């Protein structure tokens, strides 16, 4: 029987030779980056890049201090600490080849709910030059309808009243920046790694809206001392399952309580505006460019919106994963038409990228049979995703007089997905901060008011006032309810022009 080795620093050299382990001395690394949100994506993406950086440049001051901010992050925090912050990245090729690599770039972790002061102190430490965030699209507290910070949110109000004991990322950042200023320590870079177009700009706008209320005197200092680069991040990272944990154990004999699975593809395009230094990210494959806008737009509108299209359609069809859904020819050609006819016309030129090749590679990536990317992961928190991934395409196509019907199918499929949740054959839960209003309005739109779903202003803004949008939407949702998603896609040209 294969010997099973528990993953931790002491056991690293006992791991099988075909598992890559950090080739640098972790004990000599200091944290230069604080990262908030140590979920799967951070661990497959930024932590992977920094691991490569450390491997190439040796022990440096660019290690990562991972911060678990929410109560619900306790399990990942405990798991990582129990493994000396090590974990296995299982990179899975489409032909089934599995490359296991132990990532060593996270060198320390903090659990904010237990010790907020330690987190603030760390962020304020002179050695920390960059704070990066993966706090999800919904984490920016952004009102889709107005584009403004939602200052009345209860968690924000609580932080404003208790600045000494923050709970939100805005409360933490403000407190830490204030401390840096008061101590005469230089500013730093705060970098969003979430899928929001102009993520750096949005982060800055949201943070400054909070600071304006909490600590007005800090605004000027932030303007002078802190930068917020935009970035486009990409690597498909499904939720780790028990089967992945078992697989790692049986193939490699590694006992890792929370490995991360990802596809081989990886991309990071970053606006080069770091205020107080950065690691040489180009040396490990990141692209530093003056304007990330076109890259972000392309990725979010094609990949992320494409995911949502497959997520709702596949769930209505009865599929569980993206690869299963995209292998159904009806859905893959629908996805391709959505990309070609509705999204591509609103994307400008993207330097160095051939959009046709990019779309082909997306369909291939989605089809990777060894990345069982769950539709439940894709569909969760759609109220924060759809306004960023899809609605801008609809708006721009409405302005340009272009086609919108395929994008509208995605909105209608989302509504039907909400209506059917928990009914026979649709055994999924709605995981969304706005789940009650989403579900209530979706159901109300069946009988009371056909436009009830579109009237959720915090998601759709004023889209419901576009006659063309409504005239396209109503026959499509009616058809999905009556004939199902497959038949609706098949007969879409007869349903609407
Ligand atoms: C997904 C993303 O959350 C989603 O809906 O589209 O997590 C996607 O997998 C990543 O952005 C890929 O880079």
Task: Please name the defining characteristics of this protein.
497 residues, alpha/beta, Rossmann fold, N-(1-d-carboxylethyl)-l-norvaline Dehydrogenase, domain 2, 2 domains, three-stranded mixed sheet, 13 strands, binds D-mannonic acid
Quickly count the helices: 21
Query: DSSP strand (E) fraction?
Result: 5-15%
CATH homologous superfamily (4th level) name of the largest domain: NAD(P)-binding Rossmann-like Domain
User: At the first level of CATH, what is the class of the largest domain?
Assistant: Alpha Beta
- Count up the domains: 2
Quick rundown:
47% of the residues lie in helices and 11% in strands. The mean pLDDT is 96. It is α/β, with parallel strands linked by helices.
Structure report:
With 497 residues, the chain is of the alpha/beta class. The chain has two domains: 5-289, NAD(P)-binding Rossmann-like Domain (Rossmann fold); 293-495, N-(1-d-carboxylethyl)-l-norvaline Dehydrogenase, domain 2, CATH 1.10.1040.10. Helix content is 47%, strand content 11%. It has 21 helices and 13 strands. It has helices at residues 40-44, 46-57, 74-82, 116-124, 154-161, 169-183, 199-214, 219-225, 242-252, 293-317, 322-326, 329-343, 355-366, 375-379, 382-389, 391-400, 405-420, 435-447, 457-460, 467-490, 492-495; strands spanning 5-6, 31-36, 63-68, 87-92, 98-103, 106-111, 130-133, 189-192, 231-234, 254-255, 260-262, 267-271, 287-289. Strands 6-3-2-7-8 form a five-stranded parallel beta sheet, sandwiched between helices. It has a three-stranded mixed beta sheet with strand order 5-4-11, with helices on both faces. Strand 4 and strand 5 (98-103) form a beta hairpin. It is globular and about 65 Å long. D-mannonic acid (CS2) binds at residues 195, 234-236, 304, 307, 378, 385. Residues 195, 234-236, 304, 307, 378, 385 line the site of D-mannonic acid.
């Amino acid at each position: 029987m294969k010997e099973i080795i528990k993953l931790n620093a002491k056991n690293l050299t006992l791991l099988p030779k075909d598992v890559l382990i950090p080739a640098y001395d972790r004990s000599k690394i200091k944290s230069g980056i604080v990262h908030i949100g140590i979920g799967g994506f951070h661990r497959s993406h930024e932590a992977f890049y920094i691991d490569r950086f450390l491997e190439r440049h040796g022990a440096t001051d660019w290690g990562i201090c991972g911060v678990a901010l929410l109560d619900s992050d306790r399990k990942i925090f405990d798991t990582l600490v129990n493994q000396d912050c090590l974990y296995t990245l299982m990179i899975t090729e489409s032909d089934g080849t599995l490359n296991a690599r132990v990532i060593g770039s996270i060198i320390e972790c903090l659990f904010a709910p237990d010790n907020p002061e330690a987190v603030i102190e760390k962020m304020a430490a002179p050695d920390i030059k960059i704070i990066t965030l993966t706090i999800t699209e919904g984490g920016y507290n952004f009102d889709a309808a107005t584009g403004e910070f939602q200052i009345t949110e209860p968690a924000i109000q609580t932080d404003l009243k208790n600045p000494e004991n923050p709970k939100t990322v805005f409360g933490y950042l403000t407190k830490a920046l204030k401390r840096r200023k008061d101590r005469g320590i230089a500013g730093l870079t705060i970098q969003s790694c979430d899928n929001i177009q102009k993520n750096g700009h949005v982060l800055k706008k949201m943070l400054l809206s909070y600071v304006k209320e909490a600590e007005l005197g800090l605004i000027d200092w932030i303007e002078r001392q802190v930068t917020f680069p935009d970035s486009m991040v990409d690597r498909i990272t499904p939720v780790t399952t028990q089967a992945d944990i078992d697989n790692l154990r049986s193939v490699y004999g590694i006992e890792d309580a929370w490995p991360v699975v990802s596809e081989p593809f990886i991309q990071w395009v970053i606006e080069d505006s770091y205020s107080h230094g950065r690691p040489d990210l180009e040396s490990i494959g990141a692209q530093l460019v003056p304007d990330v806008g076109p890259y972000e737009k392309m990725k979010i509108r094609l990949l992320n919106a494409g995911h949502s299209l497959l997520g709702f359609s596949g769930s209505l069809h009865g599929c569980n994963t993206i690869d299963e859904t995209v292998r159904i020819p009806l859905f893959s050609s629908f996805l391709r038409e959505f990309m070609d006819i509705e999204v591509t016309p609103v994307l400008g030129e993207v330097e160095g990228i051939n959009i046709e090749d990019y779309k082909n590679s997306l369909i291939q990536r989605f089809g990777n049979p060894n990345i069982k990317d769950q539709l439940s992961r894709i569909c969760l928190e759609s109220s924060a995703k759809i306004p960023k991934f899809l609605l801008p395409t609809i708006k721009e196509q409405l302005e340009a007089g272009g086609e919108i019907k395929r994008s509208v199918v995605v909105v209608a499929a989302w509504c039907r997905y909400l209506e059917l949740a928990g009914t026979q054959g649709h055994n999924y839960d709605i995981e969304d901060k706005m789940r009650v209003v989403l579900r209530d309005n979706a159901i109300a739109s069946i009988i009371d008011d056909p436009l009830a779903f579109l009237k959720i202003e915090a998601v759709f803004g004023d889209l419901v006032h576009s006659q063309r949008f409504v005239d396209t939407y109503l026959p499509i949702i009616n058809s999905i309810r009556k004939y199902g998603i497959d038949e609706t896609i098949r007969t879409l040209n007869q349903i609407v022009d």
